[in-house]
Write a structure and sequence with these properties.
The complex is a heterodimer of chains A (409) and B (203). By secondary structure, chain A is an all-alpha fold. Chain A contains 16 helices and no strands. In chain A, helix 1 runs antiparallel to helix 15. By secondary structure, chain B is of the alpha+beta class. Chain B is built from 6 helices and 5 strands; from the N terminus they run ββαβααααβαβ. Chain B is elongated and about 85 Å long. Classes of the chains: A mainly alpha (409), B alpha+beta (203). The interface between A and B is medium-sized, with 23 and 34 residues.
């Protein structure tokens, strides 16, 4: 046997079958009367919120902002996953991409639902009060002016909404003609969207949640909001994929390998969120400068401290330990449970950002908090469901679809 | 493919190593990862236990068809991580909290000032987990090892980075030269070779 003997190069890729899964479209027979039920819940809770809000406009303002911020972060997180899918030419996430596109395209509707904030804004962002003129505010004057604030807010929604609709539009056009140019166009849009979107989300975070206390500043705040958005949207898409699978859809494109990929991302972003949250806390705690520490002083006193401890344990320790194991990550049911838990923790995270400003003396649950979440959530869900059947449940002719179906972790 | 050598029966097989030394194994080369996985499954079903499947990169499903149990590496890494947390906390809290309390900036030195101890806990956990993972992988993989008798096979030496091999070792209870040669040939192996050990250096 000679050492010079030639050896044929091995086939380094597994053969991918040329068979594409048959596109599925959502059939409304699975929804039945539940869609009407959702519309009734939405309408009833919107009216209830309005009535309660007329009674206690300050509580309404904070509850509505709380629910608005929660859903805004979920929609922006979904948009992030679509953008990053296109930017890195990802293959594993083709099967869930259409649903992420559908969620992120609810942004204009959310903007509409948040219009009441225009009326109650001075109750939330006290710097808008013209009677309040002090040296600190005059130093921040070119930035903190009412008109500029609303122009910025408009720009955030227009920018994110446009990107979301452009990406979905190209994706739908590809369902018809199957041309690869749509993928390339979406990739270019994503390259532009990443740097601008990072800045837009950061400044949104400065303007909306951070602006509740105009003394306070934290330069890592934008990343903290981003980390929460991404993990919230990831939990949401896991739950949505499970719901669609239990109705008999997506079985052709999602396997336990995709569950495992989603589980790994959930673990990774649990760690990312925890680290960013800790870094912000550590630096503020250690430096102990009054205007920085005010944020945590408020949230580590009285009953707020208990909620803070629940957040640390529930948003970090519980999902971290549960997701360390390999087998549970591949199981859709278990992953769904963890995702539901993480989504609830994201809700708590946003709650602790907003509500202590209204109730500095301690945790004070209000009916309006729940009504606001249900009102905005059910309205978004109803419109999502209404549009779900308009397009195939996954990008039917995406160039990477065959690869995505055969994805092996 | 003209370079294939004909397959001979019994001891007329191509021989690698020194034929005066004991037989180590019978090896065969496979042309695709799927062929390797299929052949491994067939060997496993036929009741062989002392064989190795060699591949240049991890193959999905290969450990399962070989019947290998789940590696204990993840448990070792978890243990490494947990002990790192304990080591880091005691290295920080015993000296600065108990033996010689060092009050900086008016901060307490016990567990109520936990945040300041966390960065070192995280860093040490990462380091010890990573070292456990790498060292555990090497040790559980049977390394370090100075030599493997299969290195006597020239074809393996030159092709291990791009080809797929199976070697059925001679101490397998079901091993006979004729049956293994025939089986490997039936499973689609090419270059089936009897691998003998290399002569030991004269002392």
């Amino acid at each position: 046997m000679s050492a010079e003997k030639s050896i044929l190069p091995a086939h380094h890729t597994r053969p991918v079958s040329g068979m594409l899964p048959d596109p599925e479209t959502f059939d409304y027979k699975h929804v039945g009367g539940r869609f009407m039920g959702l519309c009734i819940v939405s309408l009833a809770s919107l009216i209830l919120a309005l009535l309660l809000g007329l009674g206690d406009s300050k509580q309404f303002a904070f509850s509505w902002l709380f629910a608005g911020c929660f859903f805004f972060t979920l929609l922006i997180g979904s948009l992030f996953w679509v953008v990053v899918h296109h930017a890195v030419d990802s293959c594993w996430s083709v099967g869930i991409r259409r649903q992420l596109e559908n969620i992120s395209c609810l942004l204009p509707l959310l903007a509409l639902l948040l219009l009441p904030l225009l009326v109650v804004a001075p109750l939330l962002w006290t710097w808008m009060n013209p009677a309040l003129a002090n040296h600190e505010l005059s130093e921040k004057l070119p930035y903190l002016t009412v008109n500029f604030f609303w122009v910025r807010t408009l720009l955030y929604f227009v920018f994110f909404g446009t990107i979301a609709h452009m990406l979905r539009h190209n994706s739908l056009a590809q369902d018809v003609d199957g041309a690869a140019i749509h993928t390339i166009r979406n990739r270019r849009i994503s390259f532009v969207a990443i740097p601008i979107g990072a800045l837009a989300l950061t400044f949104w975070a400065f303007d909306w949640p951070m602006g509740l206390n105009y003394h306070w500043n934290s330069t890592i705040w934008g990343i903290y909001i981003f980390a929460g958005s991404v993990i919230g949207a990831l939990s949401l898409i896991i739950l949505l994929a499970n719901a669609l699978r239990s109705a008999g859809y997506l079985g052709q494109v999602l396997t336990s390998e995709h569950n495992y990929a989603l589980g790994k991302f959930l673990l990774a972003f649990t760690l990312f969120w925890s680290w960013i949250a800790f870094v912000q806390y550590l630096l503020i705690w250690y430096a102990n400068i009054p205007e920085e520490a005010a944020y945590y002083t408020l949230r580590t006193q009285g009953s707020w401290k208990i909620l803070g401890i629940i957040l640390v344990v529930g948003h970090f320790l519980v999902p971290f330990l549960l997701l360390l194991l390999r087998a549970p990550k591949a199981s859709a049911g278990f992953l769904g449970l963890v995702a539901g838990w993480v989504l609830a923790m994201h809700l708590l995270d946003v709650y602790i950002m907003i509500l202590p400003v209204l109730h500095p003396e301690g945790f004070q649950p209000a009916l309006l908090d729940i009504v606001a979440v249900i009102a905005i959530g059910s309205t978004l869900a109803a419109v999502f469901l209404k549009r779900l059947g308009d397009s195939p449940l996954w990008p039917a002719r995406d160039p990477r679809l065959a690869e995505a179906v055969n994805y092996i972790d | 493919m003209s370079h294939h050598l004909p397959i001979f029966e019994g001891h007329h097989l191509p021989v690698a190593g020194s034929s005066s030394e004991p037989l180590y194994a019978i090896g065969g080369r496979f042309e695709s990862p799927d062929a390797l996985v299929n052949a491994t499954q067939a060997l496993s079903k036929a009741g062989f236990s002392c064989y190795e499947s060699y591949t240049p990169y991890p193959l999905h499903g290969l450990p399962q068809v070989m019947g290998l149990p789940k590696s204990i590496l993840s448990l070792l890494v978890f243990g490494g991580g947990v002990s790192a947390v304990l080591i880091a906390l005691s290295m920080e809290l015993i000296p600065t909290g108990i033996i010689y309390p060092l009050i900086v900036d008016g901060k307490p030195t016990d567990l109520s000032a936990l945040p300041q101890f966390i960065p070192i806990v995280v860093a040490l956990t990462l380091m010890i987990s990573a070292i456990t993972a790498v060292a555990g992988m090497i040790l559980l993989g049977g390394m370090p090892r100075l030599n493997n008798p299969i290195f006597a096979w020239d074809l393996f030496q030159s092709g291990a980075s791009r080809s797929f091999f199976i070697a059925v070792e001679s101490h397998d209870p079901k091993f006979t030269t004729a049956s293994v040669t025939e089986l490997l040939h039936d499973l689609g192996a090419v270059d089936v070779t009897a691998i003998h050990q290399e002569p030991k250096d004269p002392e």
